[in-house]
Amino acid sequence: MARQYKRQYKLLSSFRALGFVLASLCLVSVSAVADDAPDIPADQNNADQKAAVQRLGEAFLPLATTFNCSKFAWGSFLNNGATVQIEYVPAGDNVERWTRLMTINIFPLPKDQSAQIDTMGKIQGGLLGVYKDKGKIIDQTLFKTDEGYPRLFVEYEIGDGLQKEHSAGAFLKLMPTAAQFVQIQARGKPFDPIDAANMKLFVQNKLKMPPAKTGPAN
Q: What band does 211 get if pLDDT is binned at 50, 70 and 90?
């Protein structure tokens, strides 16, 4: 992409779930920014969007901190404003040269419960399809809440050479009208199996951690 913020591939497929375009869910490589503030690209976010990204980044910081990524480093609306991605690294690290990264992708959902469940099922299937086709799924477990909402734990590898990543992710609904795909990732160093164990506990509501703050309605 011929623009300042060139994004490395993470999920390479494009698919639609009730009109929400889910394209190229990706990791980022961005210009170096001040250590005390997240990079929220002005060319991708208007003032209201930038404020919303800031609130979301702060809201999910307790979760990221639980996985030892206590610095909110980058965030943006993507896919013409249809989704949001926020990223965290350990304190003192740089998102441009990360070896440990938490990425949270946020997908809007319709208000109706049955439509939410249907949309989440389609997103979940798309995620698994990408990792199966473009990477290697090491472990996956499907769950359902008492209300019928799908939940997914997946551990996978994707990429080659120096860009090879080993990650564990949880797909679930943490907000009234939005679903989240939460990933803890390692690149350039061994993946800690404790991260996978904790992510599986998280998706089952068994990981002790502070609750997320209230984010913007979406």
A: low
* Count of helices and strands (H, E) across the chain: 4, 9
| Contact predicate 118/19, CB 8 Å | no
Query: Helix, strand, or coil here: 68?
Result: coil
pLDDT, position 208 = 79
Q: How confident is the model at residue 14 (pLDDT cuts 50, 70, 90)?
A: very low
Chain-centre distance for alpha carbon 33: 21
SS3 of the chain: helix, strand, coil, percent, to 5: 25, 35, 40
φ, ψ of residue 207 to 5 degrees: the values are -90, 125
CA-based nearest residue to 217, from 55, 7, 68: 55
pLDDT the model gives residue 20: 33
pLDDT band of residue 162 (cuts 50, 70, 90) is: confident
Q: What is the DSSP letter of 96?
A: G
Residue 29 pLDDT greater than 70, yes or no = no
End-to-end Cα distance, the chain: 28
218 burial (CB, 10 Å; 0-12 / 13-18 / 19+) is middle
Report the residue count for the chain: 218
Domains identified in the chain and CATH numbers: 14-203 (3.40.1000)
